Amino acid sequence: MSNSHFDVRRSQTRRQFFGHTATGIGTAALTSLLSPDLLATAPQVAPRAKRIIYLFMHGGPSQMDLFDDKPTLAKLRGTELPASVRMNQRLTGMTANQESLPVASSAFKFAQHGQSGASISELLPNLGKVADELCFIKSMHTEAINHDPAVTYLQTGHQQPGRPSMGAWLSYGLGSENADLPAFVVLLSQGSAARPDDPLHARLWGSAFLPSNHQGVSFRSAGDPVLYLSNPPGINAATRRRMLDGLSKLNQKQFESAGDPEINTRIAQFELANRMQMSVPDLTDLSDEREQTFDSYGIDARRPGTFAANCLLARRMAERGVRFIQLYHRGWDQHYNLPSDLRLQCRDVDQPCAALINDLRQRGLLEDTLIVWSGEFGRTIYSQGKLESNNYGRDHHGRCFTMWLAGGGIKPGITFGGTDDFSYNVAHDPVHVHDLNATILHCMGIDHERLTFKSKGRQYRLTDVHGQVVKELLV
How confident is the model at residue 40 (pLDDT cuts 50, 70, 90)? Predict the structure, then answer.
């Protein structure tokens, strides 16, 4: 006698089984993709910010030339870095075999700014004018000593590729405030430094094992802001709509057959792309901006693809509810010719950063927009190569570096953490990469230990298995 239930189950193919059982899940998944706010993760703590503008200085800005003033080192210029300070630190291959590690005090003057008395380099005079809005962390540290693993670590919480970026995590956890624009947008700008830039990989704004609709959308500075945004010749809006409707039906049939949730993601992405044909041109059309606004961001604000223009675009995206806006500014890897190249890089970003803060504040957006300014690590106090009277370079340094935050529930006008007399080691209140990311998520209303996704048999999160919220930074 046959077992009818067993026979029916045995007659089903694996594909049919998943297709039948996935129907309910698929409907919910499609609903969440087409209207992500309906099923987005609810804030787990009181949110302080609604969105993030992340200003990433790719290459590793020199903390002791910008924010971490060490005036006593002028007397030690050219002397050997004490072994007691270095403590057998692992060095990169670029300086590990140097016969000497001479102390290179900064070539730039510092001054205190605002009521907070923040010490800021002469290279950043406009940033000094908004010092009381800034929260400096001088005790950041990381284990990575080379660019790719260090950038990947800060952006994804892991030194090796294969994890979702912070923007993807926030898109997954909170959804979008604007159904007509991506939740996560990336803007790239070229620095003015003479040294060739290190590469940036698209995986840095990828979604990895999260659904692919959470990956960042990179805007271009020439042509269509997003590839294939415009309809090709002979295709109008009505024709495009009929094509999408037909394609949606075909994809839905494929989903019913295969049960792969990525098919529903594809449907949602096509629909978003269609809506972006109207929303993106409006976003990137700066003709409604006042002359005063362009002047505040600087002469480069009218040149698409510059850091100044991207900061202005970032403000417009914040107004329109884009959840995570990532700006990459390249060219901060000063292994040589630091005094000249660093001056050029700071000229690129100083005025736009200050203008962005003022612009957001004047529009009532700074209080719920978190601005993050950071590189992947800092630089060594010793000179890479020959130390000259008016020139020097610096190698990578992860044991301590400086970054700043503003807005979004962060205490303004404070400095947290500190370094030793050589800006070489953290002296007190260390802040690790995972601590920073946990704090950023906390500002967005997310408990970093609860925002997880199961992949390859285990639960993953942005902060891996580490990280503490730095409560001293919060309002």
Answer: low
- Condensed to tens digits (0 to 9), the pLDDT of residues 143-202 reads 999 999 999 999 999 999 999 999 999 999 999 899 999 999 999 999 999 888 788 999
Whether 378 shows a pLDDT value over 80: the answer reads yes
Q: Is residue 107 part of a domain?
A: yes
Instruction: Centre a 10 Å sphere on the Cβ of residue 5 and count the other Cβ atoms it contains.
Output: 8
Q: Return the number of other C-beta atoms located less than 10 Å from residue 226's C-beta.
A: 18
| DSSP category for residue 103 | B
At residue 327, φ and ψ (nearest 5 deg) are -110, 125
The reply to whether 26 falls in a domain is no
CATH code of the domain containing 128: 3.40.720.10
Q: Which two tokens stand for residue 465?
A: 């298995």
Q: Are strands 324-330 and 184-189 parallel, antiparallel or unpaired?
A: parallel
Contacts of 315 (CB under 8 A, 6+ apart): 356, 359, 360, 363, 365
Number of domains in the chain: 1
For residue 304, what are the domain limits? 44-235+299-473
Nearest to 221 by CA among 307, 98, 126: 307
236-254 tens-digit pLDDT: 878 777 887 787 788 888 8
Residue 274 belongs to a domain = no
Backbone angles phi, psi at 457, to 5 degrees: 85, 5
158 occurs within a structural domain: yes
Residue 237: predicted pLDDT: 79
Name the pTM for this structure.
0.87
| 302 φ/ψ sector (left φ>0, alpha ψ -120 to 50, else beta) | alpha
CA Rg value for the chain: 25
